[in-house]
Amino acid sequence: MSVTIKDVARVANVAPSTVSRVISDSPRISERTKRKVRKVMEELGYHINYNGRVLVSQSTQTIGIVTKVSTVHSFDNPFFSELLRGISDACHEEDYSIYLTTGNTEEAIFKEVVKMVQGKRVDGVIVLYSREDDKVVPYLRDCNFPFVMVGKPVNRAGETMFVDNDNILASKEVTDYLIQLGHERIGFIGGDSHFEVARDRLEGFRQALANGHLEEDKNLQKNIQSGLADADQVVEELLQVKDPPTGLVITDDYNALTVMRALTSKGLKLPEDMSIVGFNNTMIARLSNPALTTVDTQSFQLGHESARSLIDLLNRPDMIKKSVIIPTVIVERDSCHPRKTIKQKD
Amino acid sequence: MSVTIKDVARVANVAPSTVSRVISDSPRISERTKRKVRKVMEELGYHINYNGRVLVSQSTQTIGIVTKVSTVHSFDNPFFSELLRGISDACHEEDYSIYLTTGNTEEAIFKEVVKMVQGKRVDGVIVLYSREDDKVVPYLRDCNFPFVMVGKPVNRAGETMFVDNDNILASKEVTDYLIQLGHERIGFIGGDSHFEVARDRLEGFRQALANGHLEEDKNLQKNIQSGLADADQVVEELLQVKDPPTGLVITDDYNALTVMRALTSKGLKLPEDMSIVGFNNTMIARLSNPALTTVDTQSFQLGHESARSLIDLLNRPDMIKKSVIIPTVIVERDSCHPRKTIKQKD
DNA sequence: GCGCGTTATGATATCGATCTCATATGATTG
DNA sequence: CAATCATATGAGATCGATATCATAACGCGC
């Protein structure tokens, strides 16, 4: 069908192996022959077929990306898009390609992973989440297949390459920020607690409260899980509490915006009646009204570093399993306000 | 290294070709042998190596996705994420995999495409944009390589498979919607006019004005291009016009929200002082305040259909080059308001 | 002028699967 | 019971590249 190395060899009157050597620019071939062969390649419109090369070199120059269940909340979330851009960028620099897993259920994703790993379609894998009860990561460990996680591994962190923020610290800092503003009743709205990141951020939140000698009230800790409890309900509950919060730490920009909507529809004034901080600094944080103060987790960098680390690992399989922590930055916008010193009658 | 078909053959005491036939569940192999071979595969932990198969079958069961330059505005935009989800979903149903091109410049993208097409890494390609001055589509045509576009081709539509909305109609309808609400001065804020979609939506907008016997004022037609003119500037300009608009058609939810922010910061009340419609019905439309009325372009379906069409084409290469039009729906929310019958003095 | 080391190239096996063609075996039939 | 045929399996070529080993050609020193 298309032009192969043999066609080139025949026309150029050399052996296929010579053509192969010209392709890899081997120093063992004379300049004269190289020129001749290259001319023929040009004339015939030759282009290498990677599949042939892959078979012998046992390397695909491709990395696989595994995301969590994608039905509603993964691609949807701009955070993931940014991650993907970062990965994509790093891959391109190193001339690697990207192979994307899809799949709507955990089981489907797992099968896809097995298929791409065992089927030798990728050289390594980036896992874009960290959660307990996950089959993918243990599987990759068992196979001894090169992989990098975005997010801190649930266990055996020492044996695993990962790229992450210091989520405990980030959450602590941003809670501190609210405390500095005078808030004493601070609520926390997290995501799916199966994920490591959710637990870390709650932990940081609690540390900040403890540090600030503020009482921890479980009634102020809520969850928004995709589909399950929605913002309206959570807001409802938070406002019912006697002595309701004046500040909220929300672990995701998207959810933060949802909550803001719910609050305004209840007649609260933002940021005067409720100070809010989000996480991730996605583009939507800039768009809300008031603009959202949020923790920039530098998702692009997170993605970029994860790909770079994986490629490093592929190049030197025996390298030490380093982990990379990407610093976070609080981006101050307009969604926070010093606590009003109301309740004069007290 | 890993277990191959030959290892299985040796242990099971059959020929490699027999094992291959068992894999493809050929009816020419007895049930007894199949059971025996399968048992050995199980025991040895055999898994097919796709690269071998690809080489002989000349098919990768993989489709490539080409997006426009990704630096700022492609993955960023939830519209693309939804498209990707739709593609991903359809691919998974048909057991196809996804190969993603990256690249920060047009030239880099073009090279990636050549690489994946000539290098035989994918069976077909989905191009997620339609623009003039594009090298990718003409190239794919020249190679006679199977591809599907999302968006109407700039030319030679009859020879090209594509999936699209009727953007002219959609834009006309949504402009009509504003006209029905009594608006007579309506502005249009589009995107990069290199893209076919931008031109179509402008066209529909103009048709609606003409139909409604409204005068077309070029001063009310603006553009927001990624990075270039920003919302504040555009809003500034629009409000400077004598007899400024009371309604705006904005061809993208993201830009619509940017404009809304700019308007409120100028002290306008929404939707009373300005009615706004967006496009795409991305998740951010739901989050704005007031919630954005927008044209649902059904991006998930767009992606889904494009993948399905491509896979159809791959299965029957001589099939007629059909095109699919996905209907649009206006999603009414709270960002539009009947025109106030002010200017009593008139 | 013979032996030897270099250099440039060729011949061939190989990667892991599939596919075509050949063949052994057993069943069917006149 | 020989001829014929269907069935189940094996042998070997093949896909398009790379890599190893062999070898031809050449120059050089003694």
Short summary:
Chain A is an alpha/beta fold and 346 residues long.
Could you characterize what this model shows?
The structure is a homodimer of 346-residue chains. Chain A is of the alpha/beta class. Chain A has three domains: 44 residues, lambda repressor-like DNA-binding domains (434 Repressor (Amino-terminal Domain), Orthogonal Bundle), CATH 1.10.260.40; 121 residues, Rossmann fold (3-Layer(aba) Sandwich), CATH 3.40.50; 130 residues, Rossmann fold (3-Layer(aba) Sandwich). Chain A is 43% helix and 14% strand. A six-stranded parallel β-sheet of chain A has the order 2-1-3-4-5-11, sandwiched between helices. A six-stranded mixed β-sheet of chain A has the order 7-6-8-9-10-12, sandwiched between helices. The model of chain A has no long low-confidence stretch (mean pLDDT 91). Chains A and B meet through helix 4, helix 5, strand 2, helix 6 and helix 11 of A and helix 4, helix 5, strand 2, helix 6 and helix 11 of B. The structure holds a DNA duplex (30 and 30 nucleotides). Chains A, B: This is DNA-binding transcriptional regulator, LacI/PurR family. Chains A, B: InterPro entries: HTH_LacI, LacI/GalR-like_sensor, Lambda_DNA-bd_dom_sf, Peripla_BP_I.
